[in-house]
Automatic annotation (TrEMBL):
SUPFAM superfamilies: 4Fe-4S ferredoxins, Flavoproteins. InterPro entries: 4Fe4S_Fe-S-bd (IPR017896), 4Fe4S_Fe_S_CS (IPR017900), Fe-S_Ferredoxin (IPR050572), Flavoprotein-like_sf (IPR029039). PANTHER family: ADENYLYLSULFATE REDUCTASE, BETA SUBUNIT, L-ASPARTATE SEMIALDEHYDE SULFURTRANSFERASE IRON-SULFUR SUBUNIT. This is 4Fe-4S binding protein. It holds the Pfam family Fer4_9. The lineage of its organism: Bacteria, Bacillati, Bacillota, Clostridia, Lachnospirales. Keywords: 4Fe-4S, Electron transport, Iron, Iron-sulfur, Metal-binding, Repeat, Transport. Residues 183-211, 213-239 form the 4Fe-4S ferredoxin-type domain. GO terms for molecular function: 4 iron, 4 sulfur cluster binding; metal ion binding.
Amino acid sequence: MKLFKFIFSPTGGTQKAADILAEGLAACGNIPDTMTETIDLTDYSADFGAVCLAPEDIALIAVPSYAGRVPEAAMKRLAAVRGNGARAVLLCVYGNRAFEDTLVELANGAKLAGFKTAAAAAAIAEHSIAHTYAPAAGRPDAQDEECLKAYAGKIWEKLSGEECPAPAIPGNRPYKKLGAMEMIPQANEGCTKCGLCAEKCPVQAIDRNDPHIVNREQCIYCMRCVSVCPLSVREINPAAVQKVALMLQTVSPARRECELFL
């Protein structure tokens, strides 16, 4: 039995939460590092069709929630994987506002890829745009870590049982429509055209010869380019960031906690 970690984490928040939960699952199941494999769903060049699981394997599938939905690129790449009946633990990570239809959409994608969903969880990470938004700043924190490790124990208990029925997962079908949003980071005059942002962009929306040029139709506003820029010269209009932060503080001023669905 192997533990596969399928992770779409452009800025690292989803990765942090997924690693905590995965470490907990591995500890409960005495799964060594040599039997754990990470599949980076942000890697546009990877051959996801070559990823093939066995029925006894376990998959942790972790994605961020973008406006209450799964990033389209993550869904397409997951669809190419051959799950072969392996049990899946789903994890969506969001910036404290709401995850809405993310988990139910991810569950459908996992099913189409041949996985059997055994459990699902939602966790909070620092907002990828509004970093100062207080309820999400610095998360996942120690309290989140304790919670996710406890979830790992409960999930493993279910996985160890004779039966492993699919959990009831909140969300709507049809999924919520994605609203119009344009938060495209731009390179300022300090850009040296090193090309790292273009290389690391999950959807290849940035011109490799001139990082000032961004394909507005391809960009998914994931902020990967901002997080990897070695000179911190890619940015969003500060007024737009402030507007997002104010909206978040208005609609969701209180701290939200992790949730588990068994």
